[in-house]
Specification:
The chain is mainly α. It is built from two helices and no strands. The relative contact order is 0.05.
């Protein structure tokens, strides 16, 4: 067996093993869920930030001034 055949066989085995490995799929799914939740939280804070400031912080400032 030549060194090229050995390399080809080893590479093919590694490629098959890589394609059949699903251990990282769960981590990617959790990362996508976390990104979606983060985007929803950021959008909510951005959309409601002015209202929260107006209703809470400005009224508290009025009380103490």
């Amino acid at each position: 067996m030549t060194s090229f055949e050995t390399f080809s066989t080893t590479t093919l085995c590694q490629l098959r093993r890589f394609c059949s490995d699903e251990s990282g799929a769960t981590a990617i799914e959790y990362a996508m869920i976390a990104a979606g939740v983060g985007a929803c939280v950021a959008g909510t804070v951005w959309a409601l930030g002015g209202k929260v400031k107006e209703t809470l912080y400005d009224k508290i400032a009025e009380i103490f001034s």
